[in-house]
Amino acid sequence: MNFSPLPSVDAASVPSDALVLDVREENEWAAGHVEGAVHVPMSDFVARFGEVTESLAEHGRAYVMCRVGGRSAQVTQYLVQQGFDAVNIDGGMIAWDGAGRPMVTENGAQAFVL
To answer: N or C: which end of the chain has fewer CB within 10 A?
Structure first.
């Protein structure tokens, strides 16, 4: 079997106006996330696939994010197999935070990676 390499990008290279698709769970999202990201936990992904395709139609490319890159790699692979332009953010939120990229919370508390 021949697997093509998964398209991926480092956190520092994600455009500030990009569609970031965060597939972490609710408690991880609440601790801190990318402002403007679309939150669809991996556990809900198939059920909410319509929402994702609408966002993709608007933006063209999805930058898929989780905590370290494992779950997002699976979602990226699924999206690519469905014919969508998706890239995995290498290192996930850990790398995002490490690159000094901004994070927010819903309640104004100090954002952190859970």
So the answer is: N
